[in-house]
Design brief:
The chain is 76% helix and 8% strand. By secondary structure, the chain is mostly helical. Strands 1-2 form a two-stranded antiparallel sheet. The longest helix is centred in the N-terminal third of the chain and has 29 residues. The protein contains three helices and two strands; from the N terminus they run αβααβ. It is elongated and about 50 Å long. It has one domain.
Length: 100
């Protein structure tokens, strides 16, 4: 793996972090919910986790299974896209309401 591959991998991870931060702010502005579940142990926190991990793995695992010989950057990009979309949906559905 060349230096350019490693630079692309670092750029992918850093870029995904920036996209996730902007996505959380966008969902917060649209729905008025923070990216944390309602405090306490109970179904809101469990539903938040179920949505987050279920959507993230639902997007990430099929390409890994269907494209086993793909470059790791392709598989990582699907994983990061799944994490971002899962976080957005979980925040929009079960995030903590912000006092208006």
């Amino acid at each position: 793996m060349s230096v350019y591959w490693w630079l692309a991998a670092i750029a992918l991870v850093v870029g995904a972090g920036g996209v996730q931060a902007r996505a959380a702010a966008l969902v917060e502005r649209w729905t008025g919910r923070e990216s944390r579940p309602t405090p306490g142990i109970g179904w809101p926190a469990q539903l938040y986790s179920l949505l987050y991990y279920g959507i993230a793995m639902g997007i990430a695992l099929p390409p890994i299974y269907l494209l086993p010989d793909a470059d790791p950057l392709v598989q990582t990009s699907f994983l990061l896209a799944g994490i971002t979309i899962g976080a957005m949906v979980a925040q929009a559905v079960c995030g903590r309401k912000i006092a208006s």
